[in-house]
Predict the 3D structure of the following.
Amino acid sequence: MTKRILLIKGKGGLGNRILSAVCGLAFADLTGRTPVIDWRDGSYAPIGTNAYPLLFNTPITQKCDAFDGLAASVTPAIWSGNLGLTPQEMIEKFAPKSHSSPTGYRRFCVDLKVLDSDEDIAVYWSYLPKFNRISQHLARDPRFAHHSESGLIAEYLDRFFTPNDRVLQQVGATATQLNRPSIGVHIRYTDRKIPLDPIKKALSKRLTRTPSASVFLATDNADVQTQIAAEFDNVYHINKYLPTDGSRLHWPASDIEKLHEAENALIDMWLLSRCDHLIYSRHSTFSVTSSYLGNMSATQLHDVDKWSPTVVAKRWIQAYA
């Protein structure tokens, strides 16, 4: 092996895995490793198929399955002989009680304090980005020292997460239908529910200021989509599959057209990023990712969970774990 590799695994929703991968990509640059993104977990493409290069026009050309049976040194050593497995499978195999642990990822992620490990392959995985754990490395590296975290994330999103042609075409076509100013609203309301009434109040307040504004709604719940469309004018949404039983949509066991619905999710995410204002909850990294994509300022954002002690505490713990 001529180049050292950072194999970046994925688990969880699109926002989580995109932002986690961005952190992994920064770590790859810090360590001089070649990044390879591995999303074969079955959430956004059939199990065993890497969804990442299908969803994005990426400069990464190395195929992740090339390392599955490779005799190479690996860190963390727990991945040796297991490079073809997903984080979900590794947790089930080695630490089945740590699915909800904020520090459980550490057993399966390269030591982020160390930049000079000698192993041929390092594996990066975390459920959420770990910029706080690599912040000192970034501050000492002249390539990153003068970047804000949001600016750094936006740069990597631009380099490695340009959606495929179908997504970009649909985003462009839908965006032209929206009156300006436009208000993006993201409501996650299946396995995890964000507060609905504060979302509606924030939207009403914003529309009082700009009654002719269009509203772009991205949600995973059919009832919520019907409610918002009935209560507010000029509401737009894309046509996509929505579960009627409240179940999580993107999941390895889901019986849907996974890649197609993953593209629909990206269409939602990118359209939210093009809106002039965004009403959302920081409890969902899906909409947080949209805010980074759109380089949105604080005046454009209305986070209904900004002062939620539970959400703030959880995010703080996850950031520093």
